[in-house]
Amino acid sequence: MTLSERDKKHLWHPLTQHKLYPDHLPIVRAKGVYLYDDKENRYIDGIASWYTCMYGHCNDKIASKIKQQIDELDQVVFSGFTHKAAIELSEKLIGILPDNQQKIFFSDNGSTSVDVAIKMALQYHYNNGEKRSKLIALEDAFHGDTFGAMSVSGLSVYNGPFEDFLLTIDRIDVPNKNNFEEVCIKFESLIASGKIAAFIYEPLVQGAAAMKMYEPDFLNKLLKIAKKYHVLTIADEVMTGFGKTGRNFASDYMSIKPDIICLSKSLTAGVAPMAITSCTMEVYNSFYDSDLKKGFFHGHTYSANPLACSAAIAGIDLLRSEGIQQNIKLITNRHLEFKSVMDNHPKVKSTRVLGVIFALDLDIEMKRYGKLRDKLYNFYMKNGVFLRPLGNTIYILPPFVISDSELKKVYSVIKQSLEVV
Ligand SMILES: *Cc1c(COP(=O)(O)O)cnc(C)c1O
Fold this sequence. Notes:
Low-confidence stretches: none
CATH topology of the largest domain: Aspartate Aminotransferase, domain 2
Order of helices and strands: HEEEHHHEHEHHEHEEEHEEEHHHEEHEEH
Number of domains: 2
Number of helices: 14
Strand content: 15-25%
Mean pLDDT: 96
Bound molecules: pyridoxal-5'-phosphate
CATH superfamily of the largest domain: Type I PLP-dependent aspartate aminotransferase-like (Major domain)
Largest sheet: 7 strands, mixed
Protein backbone atom coordinates (compact mmCIF):
# COMPACT_ATOMS: atom_id res chain seq x y z
CA MET A 1 0.00 0.00 0.00
CA THR A 2 1.17 3.54 -0.73
CA LEU A 3 1.38 6.15 2.01
CA SER A 4 -1.72 7.84 0.55
CA GLU A 5 -3.71 4.63 0.82
CA ARG A 6 -2.57 3.95 4.36
CA ASP A 7 -3.41 7.54 5.29
CA LYS A 8 -7.05 6.98 4.33
CA LYS A 9 -7.47 4.04 6.73
CA HIS A 10 -7.21 5.71 10.13
CA LEU A 11 -6.39 9.39 9.83
CA TRP A 12 -8.76 12.30 10.32
CA HIS A 13 -7.11 15.53 9.13
CA PRO A 14 -7.68 19.03 10.53
CA LEU A 15 -10.00 21.49 8.74
CA THR A 16 -10.94 18.80 6.22
CA GLN A 17 -14.21 17.50 4.82
CA HIS A 18 -12.94 14.03 3.94
CA LYS A 19 -15.77 13.19 1.57
CA LEU A 20 -14.84 16.11 -0.68
CA TYR A 21 -11.09 15.98 -0.09
CA PRO A 22 -10.04 12.34 0.40
CA ASP A 23 -6.44 12.69 -0.80
CA HIS A 24 -3.50 13.93 1.21
CA LEU A 25 -0.10 14.36 -0.38
CA PRO A 26 2.65 12.54 1.55
CA ILE A 27 5.59 14.82 2.36
CA VAL A 28 8.58 12.63 3.11
CA ARG A 29 11.23 15.23 3.96
CA ALA A 30 12.01 18.93 3.98
CA LYS A 31 15.10 21.11 3.87
CA GLY A 32 15.44 24.88 3.84
CA VAL A 33 12.49 26.32 1.92
CA TYR A 34 11.69 23.01 0.19
CA LEU A 35 9.13 20.29 0.90
CA TYR A 36 9.66 16.93 -0.89
CA ASP A 37 6.82 14.51 -1.68
CA ASP A 38 7.00 10.71 -2.04
CA LYS A 39 7.75 11.06 -5.76
CA GLU A 40 10.68 13.43 -5.16
CA ASN A 41 8.78 16.46 -6.43
CA ARG A 42 9.82 19.54 -4.50
CA TYR A 43 7.76 22.55 -3.51
CA ILE A 44 8.84 25.95 -2.20
CA ASP A 45 7.09 26.35 1.16
CA GLY A 46 5.59 29.76 0.41
CA ILE A 47 3.80 30.00 3.76
CA ALA A 48 6.52 28.48 5.97
CA SER A 49 4.13 25.66 6.93
CA TRP A 50 1.63 28.06 8.52
CA TYR A 51 4.26 30.60 9.58
CA THR A 52 6.22 28.19 11.75
CA CYS A 53 9.46 27.17 9.96
CA MET A 54 10.72 30.72 9.49
CA TYR A 55 14.41 29.76 9.59
CA GLY A 56 13.94 26.99 7.03
CA HIS A 57 13.04 23.34 7.48
CA CYS A 58 15.46 21.05 9.31
CA ASN A 59 17.69 23.98 10.17
CA ASP A 60 21.09 22.69 11.35
CA LYS A 61 21.47 25.24 14.17
CA ILE A 62 18.04 24.38 15.59
CA ALA A 63 18.65 20.64 15.20
CA SER A 64 22.02 20.67 16.95
CA LYS A 65 20.60 22.60 19.91
CA ILE A 66 17.82 20.04 20.30
CA LYS A 67 20.26 17.12 19.98
CA GLN A 68 22.35 18.64 22.78
CA GLN A 69 19.25 19.07 24.94
CA ILE A 70 17.88 15.57 24.36
CA ASP A 71 20.99 14.01 25.88
CA GLU A 72 20.70 16.25 28.92
CA LEU A 73 17.03 16.61 29.93
CA ASP A 74 14.03 15.48 27.87
CA GLN A 75 11.00 16.33 29.99
CA VAL A 76 10.22 17.18 33.58
CA VAL A 77 7.19 18.39 35.55
CA PHE A 78 7.22 22.21 35.55
CA SER A 79 5.31 22.64 38.83
CA GLY A 80 7.77 22.38 41.70
CA PHE A 81 10.71 21.93 39.31
CA THR A 82 12.44 24.31 36.97
CA HIS A 83 15.21 23.87 34.38
CA LYS A 84 17.90 25.79 32.52
CA ALA A 85 16.26 25.75 29.08
CA ALA A 86 13.07 27.43 30.38
CA ILE A 87 15.08 29.96 32.40
CA GLU A 88 17.29 30.84 29.46
CA LEU A 89 14.30 31.12 27.14
CA SER A 90 12.46 33.42 29.55
CA GLU A 91 15.52 35.71 29.68
CA LYS A 92 15.82 35.76 25.88
CA LEU A 93 12.11 36.49 25.43
CA ILE A 94 12.09 39.32 27.96
CA GLY A 95 15.09 40.70 26.06
CA ILE A 96 13.10 41.09 22.84
CA LEU A 97 9.48 41.56 24.02
CA PRO A 98 8.07 45.06 24.64
CA ASP A 99 9.61 46.47 27.86
CA ASN A 100 6.49 46.16 29.99
CA GLN A 101 6.37 42.34 29.59
CA GLN A 102 7.97 40.73 32.64
CA LYS A 103 6.45 37.25 33.19
CA ILE A 104 6.37 34.18 30.94
CA PHE A 105 3.68 31.47 31.21
CA PHE A 106 3.95 28.30 29.12
CA SER A 107 1.32 26.27 27.27
CA ASP A 108 1.13 24.08 24.17
CA ASN A 109 -0.24 25.95 21.12
CA GLY A 110 -1.68 29.21 19.91
CA SER A 111 -5.21 28.38 21.05
CA THR A 112 -4.13 27.53 24.59
CA SER A 113 -2.00 30.69 24.77
CA VAL A 114 -5.20 32.63 24.04
CA ASP A 115 -7.25 30.62 26.56
CA VAL A 116 -4.55 31.32 29.16
CA ALA A 117 -4.66 35.05 28.31
CA ILE A 118 -8.46 35.14 28.64
CA LYS A 119 -8.39 33.32 31.98
CA MET A 120 -5.60 35.62 33.23
CA ALA A 121 -7.66 38.67 32.30
CA LEU A 122 -10.87 37.40 33.89
CA GLN A 123 -9.12 36.30 37.09
CA TYR A 124 -7.10 39.54 37.23
CA HIS A 125 -10.32 41.51 37.76
CA TYR A 126 -11.82 38.78 39.97
CA ASN A 127 -8.75 38.83 42.24
CA ASN A 128 -9.05 42.61 42.41
CA GLY A 129 -12.62 42.22 43.66
CA GLU A 130 -14.37 43.12 40.43
CA LYS A 131 -16.54 40.79 38.38
CA ARG A 132 -16.10 41.61 34.71
CA SER A 133 -17.76 39.05 32.48
CA LYS A 134 -17.21 40.14 28.86
CA LEU A 135 -14.45 40.64 26.33
CA ILE A 136 -14.20 42.82 23.24
CA ALA A 137 -12.82 41.31 20.03
CA LEU A 138 -12.52 42.40 16.40
CA GLU A 139 -14.84 41.31 13.57
CA ASP A 140 -13.31 38.51 11.46
CA ALA A 141 -10.78 37.72 14.18
CA PHE A 142 -9.16 34.32 14.45
CA HIS A 143 -7.69 33.26 17.79
CA GLY A 144 -7.81 29.47 17.66
CA ASP A 145 -10.01 26.42 18.08
CA THR A 146 -10.38 25.76 21.82
CA PHE A 147 -13.55 27.12 23.44
CA GLY A 148 -12.09 30.35 24.81
CA ALA A 149 -10.18 31.07 21.64
CA MET A 150 -13.19 30.12 19.50
CA SER A 151 -15.37 32.52 21.50
CA VAL A 152 -13.25 35.53 20.64
CA SER A 153 -12.85 34.42 17.00
CA GLY A 154 -15.28 35.96 14.57
CA LEU A 155 -15.03 33.77 11.48
CA SER A 156 -18.24 31.74 11.47
CA VAL A 157 -17.03 28.90 9.19
CA TYR A 158 -15.20 27.56 12.20
CA ASN A 159 -17.69 28.29 14.94
CA GLY A 160 -21.18 27.53 13.56
CA PRO A 161 -22.23 24.47 15.62
CA PHE A 162 -20.79 25.84 18.87
CA GLU A 163 -22.14 29.37 18.92
CA ASP A 164 -24.56 28.67 21.79
CA PHE A 165 -21.76 27.49 24.02
CA LEU A 166 -19.30 30.36 23.79
CA LEU A 167 -18.25 33.19 26.14
CA THR A 168 -20.05 36.53 25.88
CA ILE A 169 -18.19 38.76 23.45
CA ASP A 170 -18.81 42.27 22.17
CA ARG A 171 -17.43 42.93 18.72
CA ILE A 172 -16.10 46.01 16.98
CA ASP A 173 -15.17 46.50 13.33
CA VAL A 174 -11.52 46.57 12.37
CA PRO A 175 -10.73 50.30 12.33
CA ASN A 176 -9.99 52.04 9.03
CA LYS A 177 -9.97 55.67 7.94
CA ASN A 178 -13.68 55.64 7.04
CA ASN A 179 -15.12 54.06 10.19
CA PHE A 180 -12.55 55.11 12.77
CA GLU A 181 -14.64 57.67 14.69
CA GLU A 182 -17.59 55.29 14.79
CA VAL A 183 -15.47 52.37 16.00
CA CYS A 184 -13.96 54.47 18.79
CA ILE A 185 -17.38 55.64 19.96
CA LYS A 186 -18.74 52.09 20.01
CA PHE A 187 -15.60 50.80 21.74
CA GLU A 188 -15.80 53.42 24.46
CA SER A 189 -19.53 52.92 25.02
CA LEU A 190 -19.08 49.13 25.32
CA ILE A 191 -16.32 49.68 27.83
CA ALA A 192 -18.39 52.20 29.78
CA SER A 193 -20.71 49.33 30.77
CA GLY A 194 -18.06 48.35 33.32
CA LYS A 195 -18.41 44.70 32.31
CA ILE A 196 -15.41 44.44 29.97
CA ALA A 197 -12.42 42.47 31.28
CA ALA A 198 -10.21 42.70 28.21
CA PHE A 199 -9.82 43.68 24.58
CA ILE A 200 -8.17 41.00 22.42
CA TYR A 201 -6.83 41.66 18.93
CA GLU A 202 -4.44 40.44 16.28
CA PRO A 203 -2.15 43.46 15.97
CA LEU A 204 -1.99 44.99 12.45
CA VAL A 205 -2.59 41.74 10.52
CA GLN A 206 -5.57 39.38 10.75
CA GLY A 207 -4.06 36.23 9.28
CA ALA A 208 -7.02 33.89 8.92
CA ALA A 209 -9.19 36.77 7.66
CA ALA A 210 -6.92 36.59 4.60
CA MET A 211 -4.07 38.79 5.81
CA LYS A 212 -6.31 41.79 6.35
CA MET A 213 -4.15 44.69 7.54
CA TYR A 214 -4.90 47.86 9.50
CA GLU A 215 -3.03 50.94 10.69
CA PRO A 216 -0.95 51.18 13.90
CA ASP A 217 -2.35 54.66 14.68
CA PHE A 218 -5.93 53.35 14.82
CA LEU A 219 -4.98 50.43 17.04
CA ASN A 220 -2.92 52.70 19.27
CA LYS A 221 -5.95 54.92 19.86
CA LEU A 222 -8.10 51.91 20.84
CA LEU A 223 -5.39 50.71 23.23
CA LYS A 224 -5.31 54.18 24.78
CA ILE A 225 -9.07 54.06 25.41
CA ALA A 226 -8.81 50.57 26.92
CA LYS A 227 -6.02 51.69 29.29
CA LYS A 228 -8.07 54.70 30.39
CA TYR A 229 -10.83 52.36 31.66
CA HIS A 230 -8.47 49.76 33.06
CA VAL A 231 -9.53 47.17 30.47
CA LEU A 232 -6.68 44.71 29.91
CA THR A 233 -5.31 44.52 26.36
CA ILE A 234 -4.32 41.16 24.87
CA ALA A 235 -2.19 41.11 21.71
CA ASP A 236 -2.52 37.78 19.92
CA GLU A 237 0.87 37.69 18.19
CA VAL A 238 0.69 33.96 17.45
CA MET A 239 0.95 34.76 13.74
CA THR A 240 2.66 38.18 13.78
CA GLY A 241 5.36 37.41 16.36
CA PHE A 242 9.09 36.95 15.76
CA GLY A 243 9.95 39.26 12.89
CA LYS A 244 7.23 38.58 10.33
CA THR A 245 5.94 42.16 10.29
CA GLY A 246 9.45 43.59 9.93
CA ARG A 247 9.82 44.21 13.67
CA ASN A 248 10.26 41.54 16.35
CA PHE A 249 6.58 41.94 17.28
CA ALA A 250 3.72 43.83 15.64
CA SER A 251 3.19 45.49 19.04
CA ASP A 252 6.51 47.29 18.46
CA TYR A 253 4.67 49.53 15.94
CA MET A 254 2.42 51.02 18.65
CA SER A 255 3.49 53.34 21.49
CA ILE A 256 0.88 51.82 23.85
CA LYS A 257 1.96 48.29 24.81
CA PRO A 258 -0.41 45.40 25.55
CA ASP A 259 -0.81 43.97 29.06
CA ILE A 260 -0.70 40.40 27.77
CA ILE A 261 0.91 38.87 24.65
CA CYS A 262 0.20 35.43 23.08
CA LEU A 263 2.98 33.69 21.14
CA SER A 264 3.32 30.34 19.37
CA LYS A 265 3.73 29.29 15.69
CA SER A 266 7.38 30.25 14.94
CA LEU A 267 8.31 30.39 18.65
CA THR A 268 10.08 27.00 18.36
CA ALA A 269 11.24 27.60 14.77
CA GLY A 270 8.57 25.15 13.67
CA VAL A 271 9.88 22.00 15.34
CA ALA A 272 7.69 21.57 18.42
CA PRO A 273 4.29 22.74 19.59
CA MET A 274 4.73 25.25 22.40
CA ALA A 275 3.19 28.58 23.34
CA ILE A 276 3.84 31.51 25.65
CA THR A 277 1.49 33.95 27.29
CA SER A 278 3.55 36.84 28.63
CA CYS A 279 2.27 39.60 30.90
CA THR A 280 3.18 42.69 32.91
CA MET A 281 4.13 42.75 36.59
CA GLU A 282 0.78 44.40 37.29
CA VAL A 283 -1.12 41.40 35.93
CA TYR A 284 1.20 38.96 37.72
CA ASN A 285 0.91 40.85 41.01
CA SER A 286 -2.86 40.48 41.10
CA PHE A 287 -2.26 36.72 41.45
CA TYR A 288 0.65 37.03 43.90
CA ASP A 289 -0.88 36.61 47.35
CA SER A 290 -0.69 34.54 50.49
CA ASP A 291 -4.19 33.34 49.57
CA LEU A 292 -3.73 30.08 47.61
CA LYS A 293 -6.97 30.59 45.69
CA LYS A 294 -5.68 33.77 44.09
CA GLY A 295 -3.03 31.76 42.24
CA PHE A 296 -3.39 30.81 38.58
CA PHE A 297 -4.47 27.17 38.55
CA HIS A 298 -3.83 26.40 34.94
CA GLY A 299 -1.17 23.97 33.76
CA HIS A 300 -0.45 21.61 30.89
CA THR A 301 1.49 18.37 31.26
CA TYR A 302 4.14 19.43 28.75
CA SER A 303 4.52 23.01 30.03
CA ALA A 304 8.01 24.31 29.15
CA ASN A 305 9.16 21.04 27.60
CA PRO A 306 12.97 21.33 27.55
CA LEU A 307 13.33 20.21 23.91
CA ALA A 308 10.82 22.81 22.73
CA CYS A 309 12.53 25.44 24.90
CA SER A 310 15.92 24.64 23.41
CA ALA A 311 14.53 25.01 19.88
CA ALA A 312 13.00 28.37 20.87
CA ILE A 313 16.31 29.59 22.29
CA ALA A 314 18.09 28.73 19.03
CA GLY A 315 15.25 30.36 17.08
CA ILE A 316 15.56 33.67 18.94
CA ASP A 317 19.35 33.65 18.42
CA LEU A 318 18.72 33.23 14.69
CA LEU A 319 16.06 35.94 14.64
CA ARG A 320 18.51 38.39 16.21
CA SER A 321 21.33 37.49 13.83
CA GLU A 322 22.42 40.00 11.23
CA GLY A 323 21.79 37.53 8.40
CA ILE A 324 18.12 37.01 9.25
CA GLN A 325 17.53 40.71 9.97
CA GLN A 326 18.98 41.55 6.56
CA ASN A 327 16.89 38.89 4.85
CA ILE A 328 13.72 40.31 6.40
CA LYS A 329 14.51 43.73 4.87
CA LEU A 330 15.38 42.16 1.53
CA ILE A 331 12.16 40.13 1.35
CA THR A 332 10.13 43.23 2.30
CA ASN A 333 11.74 45.23 -0.51
CA ARG A 334 11.15 42.47 -3.06
CA HIS A 335 7.52 42.22 -1.93
CA LEU A 336 7.10 45.98 -2.41
CA GLU A 337 8.52 45.74 -5.95
CA PHE A 338 6.17 42.86 -6.76
CA LYS A 339 3.30 44.80 -5.22
CA SER A 340 3.86 47.77 -7.50
CA VAL A 341 3.80 45.45 -10.52
CA MET A 342 0.64 43.66 -9.39
CA ASP A 343 -1.15 46.91 -8.52
CA ASN A 344 -1.58 47.54 -12.26
CA HIS A 345 -2.85 44.06 -13.11
CA PRO A 346 -6.47 44.11 -14.38
CA LYS A 347 -7.44 41.04 -12.31
CA VAL A 348 -6.05 42.44 -9.06
CA LYS A 349 -8.32 44.41 -6.74
CA SER A 350 -5.83 45.29 -4.00
CA THR A 351 -2.42 44.40 -2.60
CA ARG A 352 -0.67 44.88 0.73
CA VAL A 353 2.71 44.27 2.33
CA LEU A 354 3.95 44.30 5.90
CA GLY A 355 7.38 42.85 6.62
CA VAL A 356 7.62 39.46 4.90
CA ILE A 357 3.83 39.22 4.49
CA PHE A 358 2.49 39.86 0.98
CA ALA A 359 -1.20 39.60 0.06
CA LEU A 360 -3.18 40.21 -3.10
CA ASP A 361 -6.97 40.20 -3.53
CA LEU A 362 -8.29 39.06 -6.89
CA ASP A 363 -11.08 41.06 -8.46
CA ILE A 364 -13.18 37.90 -8.58
CA GLU A 365 -15.82 36.60 -6.15
CA MET A 366 -14.60 33.33 -4.62
CA LYS A 367 -15.63 31.03 -1.79
CA ARG A 368 -13.19 30.59 1.08
CA TYR A 369 -13.01 26.86 0.30
CA GLY A 370 -14.36 26.63 -3.27
CA LYS A 371 -13.57 25.30 -6.77
CA LEU A 372 -11.67 28.35 -8.02
CA ARG A 373 -9.57 28.41 -4.90
CA ASP A 374 -8.73 24.72 -5.47
CA LYS A 375 -7.81 25.45 -9.07
CA LEU A 376 -5.30 28.05 -7.91
CA TYR A 377 -3.93 25.75 -5.22
CA ASN A 378 -3.43 22.92 -7.73
CA PHE A 379 -1.79 25.27 -10.20
CA TYR A 380 0.75 26.38 -7.59
CA MET A 381 1.53 22.81 -6.54
CA LYS A 382 1.94 21.70 -10.14
CA ASN A 383 4.45 24.49 -10.57
CA GLY A 384 6.42 23.62 -7.45
CA VAL A 385 5.11 26.24 -5.04
CA PHE A 386 3.07 25.58 -1.89
CA LEU A 387 0.60 28.41 -1.29
CA ARG A 388 -2.86 28.27 0.30
CA PRO A 389 -5.15 30.91 -1.17
CA LEU A 390 -7.87 32.08 1.22
CA GLY A 391 -10.97 32.79 -0.88
CA ASN A 392 -9.88 35.37 -3.43
CA THR A 393 -6.75 36.28 -1.48
CA ILE A 394 -3.36 34.94 -2.50
CA TYR A 395 -0.69 35.49 0.12
CA ILE A 396 2.99 34.72 0.66
CA LEU A 397 4.68 34.38 4.03
CA PRO A 398 7.97 32.70 3.15
CA PRO A 399 10.70 31.44 5.47
CA PHE A 400 13.22 34.23 6.18
CA VAL A 401 15.90 32.11 4.46
CA ILE A 402 14.25 32.16 1.01
CA SER A 403 16.69 33.24 -1.72
CA ASP A 404 16.14 35.91 -4.34
CA SER A 405 15.72 33.38 -7.12
CA GLU A 406 13.27 31.27 -5.10
CA LEU A 407 11.26 34.38 -4.32
CA LYS A 408 11.23 35.31 -8.02
CA LYS A 409 9.90 31.86 -8.82
CA VAL A 410 7.02 32.33 -6.34
CA TYR A 411 6.16 35.72 -7.86
CA SER A 412 6.28 34.39 -11.40
CA VAL A 413 4.02 31.42 -10.58
CA ILE A 414 1.52 33.78 -8.95
CA LYS A 415 1.59 36.01 -12.03
CA GLN A 416 0.99 33.02 -14.31
CA SER A 417 -1.84 31.80 -12.08
CA LEU A 418 -3.81 34.97 -12.83
CA GLU A 419 -4.10 33.71 -16.41
CA VAL A 420 -5.87 30.50 -15.34
CA VAL A 421 -8.62 32.17 -13.26
C1 LIG B 1 -2.77 29.99 14.33
C2 LIG B 1 -3.30 31.03 15.24
C3 LIG B 1 -3.87 30.70 16.47
C4 LIG B 1 -4.07 29.28 16.92
O1 LIG B 1 -2.87 28.61 17.08
P1 LIG B 1 -2.87 27.00 17.10
O2 LIG B 1 -1.46 26.66 17.42
O3 LIG B 1 -3.31 26.57 15.73
O4 LIG B 1 -3.83 26.58 18.15
C5 LIG B 1 -4.29 31.74 17.30
N1 LIG B 1 -4.17 33.02 16.91
C6 LIG B 1 -3.62 33.38 15.74
C7 LIG B 1 -3.50 34.82 15.39
C8 LIG B 1 -3.18 32.39 14.85
O5 LIG B 1 -2.66 32.74 13.67
